[in-house]
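Subject: complex prediction, re-run

Hi both,

The earlier run crashed halfway through, so I resubmitted it with identical inputs.
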Amino acid sequence: MSLKAISGIFGYFYHYASGKYSARKVSDLSIFFIIGAETLPAVIFVILNFIFSSFTFTNLDPTSNLFLLPLAGLLFALAIAFFFFYFQKSKGTKLFIPRSTATTFMTNAQKIKFRSDAFILGFTAGLPELIFTLPLYFIVLTKISESFILPSICAPILLFFILLTISPLFYLYAYFRQGNNLANFARLRAKNKTFFRFFVSSLYLSLAILLIIFEVSL
Amino acid sequence: MIEHFNETALIKTLKIDAKALGIPISAAEAFINETLKSVKKQLKSKNIITNHDLERMVAKELKKYNADLAYVYKNRDKII
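This time it finished cleanly. Structure:
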């Protein structure tokens, strides 16, 4: 799932790689960054699926009200938290993540040299925002597990979802390849900051309401 | 923490930023040198300066030559 952190880190990484290496090497490193970013959702799905499977031995149903009601409450809380706390109250698009963590990401993005570095940076870039994105993975797995979907179709559905969550990175890669630079990207992020806050908060709110209306059995 | 002003590191950072922004390297070197000349003139009267003030000074001078480079330099720690 990509909110602002992963796209910001990618923009940062692409900018500094373009300043140091050839276009071919930058493309190569970018592809491995994106592969790393796609690996994180896959790993999360595997872990969540393992946790779901362990529930079947304890007769706890992940689609029951015991899980869905707190999930809906969490989504409401995230909607409010995202609106007020996702961006820091300062100029620019500084995020809620601690400055030391952000500085570590920025320093590592500047020092990328090998494909493995790019892969690891892409993989770890989505971790700071897990607090906002983990419930969404849970919802996707819940929906798949309660629907009568053949196991052979589950994998393509999950793959499609993973590609969808990382699609902003493909767009961003094309955006930079077209000749746009970090300055344009940063200005665009700063300009659309308020819209993004409203949009994502209302998405979380809508999801919580839909969950209560259609999934919670009263 | 008090550190000496590291001109070499600053020039290296600005050159990387300029290359990433697509600014020709000779043009970038010319206005980085002009920027640093102006900044050093302003710093003559000061013994100590904060990082924030130095960044503001450099960004203000850079803006005269290239707005994008000045923006990236000033906002590089405000993106994430």
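The radius of gyration of chain A is 19 Å.

- K.
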